[in-house]
Amino acid sequence: MNELETRQLRYFVAVAEELHFGRAAERLGMAQPPLTRAIKELERRLGVRLLERTTRQVGLTPAGESLLGDARTALEAVGAAERRARHAGAAEPALRLALKADIDGGLLPDILDAYAREEASLRVEFVLGGVGEQAQAVRDGRADVALLLSPFERRGLDSEPVLTEPFLIALTADDPLAARTSLRLADLAGWSLPDGSPAEQGPISQEHGIKGAPHRSRPPAGPASLGDTSRDASDLPQIFKLVELGRMVCFFPRSLTVRYQRPGIAYLPVEDLDPVTLAVAWPQQSRSAAVAAFVRVATSAAAATRQDPAARPSPG
Length: 316
Prior knowledge:
By secondary structure, the chain is an alpha+beta fold. It is 35% helix and 18% strand.
């Protein structure tokens, strides 16, 4: 049997994800008959049935389920190889750093300063994205290295912890809870996080407390109202404003709260909440001296901060 082609895998993934030949053909920008023929040819070459077809629906066979996972991984690897090759051949090389703005433990300026002094350093390009997107940016070849919150999907990545710090809860300074010196998760009953989940459950993952998403929160005690509170709260200014108005609460790493002191928001420790860890991650197969230098200075900058707490950024 000849080797499978990326075109065949791409066609199969589209059908397997849509479970509808018409929608898959539209997604691929092609007519349905050639797509149907291509899937039949793929099944013939493999000698197994990948899809169960009836007049009403399309489903995956066990062989199809198996191929879908491997096909996604293969297509991701091909795309990453293409992006990395083009980047490596660029006239002006650069280190592409994936991160979420403000989620750097307050260390990014020190890391960049130290990295610039490394013999293997390159110009740094930022690949900005939402919380939780950094690992995939490294896997698919859009970035060479990432600063990101743990836990994250480690498939295809190596990583090192950089900084561990507590999560604090941000809530309106007008709430009676704000007069306390610390809270427990049970104290947050009735409040919601930016994505609408109950705050007393804590962050579902380390990313969950600060991820912007449609939210539903308890109404403010006063007459003020935001109207439709299901609208998106996907960035810090929106989240801060809604916290100030008593529409939600949010978990933040302590370093971020130090940078964003606001008179209308109280930040309190939560006694039964696990700390959050910032990590640096890179592709397992990377042999880049520039990446190695960045990883080295990132972990060193964090170690220096732990030894000298005064080096951390001050409010304002």
